[in-house]
């Protein structure tokens, strides 16, 4: 029996939905990694000449698989739970311009362009084929997390980069003023001094250009110290963004665990839902286990009932697995 479109969509988009979906996800991920390795190896002329036929067959096979995947994703896009993609025509057109659809297209486009227009420059084709590494974004939670943090911290990163660029320009202008006459080839203009100021503020310091005058050395020392502080800003912003996003995801998982433990016992459907959520938001097994144990120790349940003898209102407040009874009012003597 052929699978339905809904089943195919679930298999492609939800890697943990079934063993077949997991196998497909692992296979596509492995094929992408092998493609990147093949492009790197083929850039060495001796290796490519020796295994040219194997590289060509592997390229044909990869393009065939990626083309089928691309066509299937476009065809199945109306099965998406998002309403904007559910239209047969406009939904597919909207899907075609999504970032992941564009990446899927770029993964196969170099082959067809090279075949149609007879591009013979292998360096161009190989460079374009390396775009296939971005397909890992769909299959890797780590890359997806990194992209999301970049999106969330975009404003802060842009601000830090702008500050960095301004300091580069000021450093170049200062060194041109101080060292311009002494070293006209390296600091004869602000434009020429930009190279030195960039590598110095970035704390790289190749040493190909150095100041010679005492004032230039003093100024360079100040620029180097400033560069250490400024160059660390993007790293600190990204690190903070990663921590905030991970804390947010753990809190989401913690709330789901609390809701699941509010029942008398965990059902298989609850465990399956928690595992699906863990995979979806990228929580590790260790984090999930730690959150589960923390919730079990700290979560308290409240149950309200009436005493079967005196019909007095009672409240049961207890952690999971324990029950302590306390009467709202002192129990009346029978």
Automatic annotation (TrEMBL):
GO CC aspect terms: voltage-gated potassium channel complex
Domain called Ion transport: residue spans: 22-243
Keywords carried by this UniProt record: Ion channel, Ion transport, Membrane, Potassium, Potassium channel, Potassium transport, Transmembrane, Transmembrane helix, Transport, Voltage-gated channel
Coiled-coil features, chain-numbered ranges: none
Annotated InterPro entries: Ion_trans_dom, VG_K_chnl, Volt_channel_dom_sf
One Pfam short name: Ion_trans
Alphabetical GO biological process terms: action potential
GO MF term (any one): voltage-gated potassium channel activity
Domain of life (superkingdom): Bacteria
Positions of transmembrane segments: 28-48, 54-72, 93-113, 157-178, 190-207, 219-242
Compartment(s): Membrane
Topological relation to the membrane, as annotated: Multi-pass membrane protein
Subcellular location, principal: membrane
This protein's name: Voltage-gated potassium channel
């Amino acid at each position: 029996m052929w699978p339905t479109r809904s089943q195919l969509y679930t298999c492609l988009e939800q890697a943990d939905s079934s063993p077949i979906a997991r196998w497909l996800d692992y296979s596509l991920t492995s094929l992408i990694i092998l493609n990147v390795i093949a492009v790197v190896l083929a850039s060495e002329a001796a290796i490519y000449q020796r295994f040219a036929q194997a590289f060509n067959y592997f390229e044909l096979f990869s393009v065939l698989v990626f083309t089928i995947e691309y066509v299937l994703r476009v065809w199945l896009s109306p099965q998406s739970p998002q309403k904007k993609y559910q239209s047969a025509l406009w939904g597919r057109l909207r899907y075609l311009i999504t970032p992941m659809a564009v990446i899927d297209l770029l993964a196969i486009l170099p082959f067809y362009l090279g075949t149609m227009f007879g591009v013979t420059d292998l360096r161009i084709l190989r460079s374009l084929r390396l775009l296939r590494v971005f397909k890992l974004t769909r299959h890797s939670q780590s890359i997806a997390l990194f992209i999301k943090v970049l999106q969330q911290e975009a404003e802060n990163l842009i601000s830090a980069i702008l500050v960095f660029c301004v300091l580069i320009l000021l450093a170049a202008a200062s060194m041109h003023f101080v060292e311009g006459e002494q070293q006209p080839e390296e600091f004869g203009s602000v434009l020429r001094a930009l190279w030195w100021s960039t590598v110095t503020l970035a704390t790289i310091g190749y040493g190909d250009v150095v100041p010679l005058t005492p004032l230039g050395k003093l100024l360079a020392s100040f620029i180097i110290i400033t560069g250490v502080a400024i160059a660390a800003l993007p790293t600190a912003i990204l690190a903070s963004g990663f921590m905030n996003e991970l804390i947010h995801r753990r809190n989401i998982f913690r709330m789901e665990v609390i809701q699941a433990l509010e029942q008398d016992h965990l059902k298989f459907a609850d465990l399956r839902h928690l595992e699906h959520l863990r995979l979806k938001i990228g929580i590790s097994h260790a984090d999930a286990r730690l959150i589960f144990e923390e919730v079990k120790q700290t979560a308290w349940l409240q149950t309200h009932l009436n005493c079967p003898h005196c019909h007095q209102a009672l409240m049961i407040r207890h952690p999971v697995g324990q029950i302590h009874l306390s009467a709202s009012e002192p129990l009346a003597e029978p």
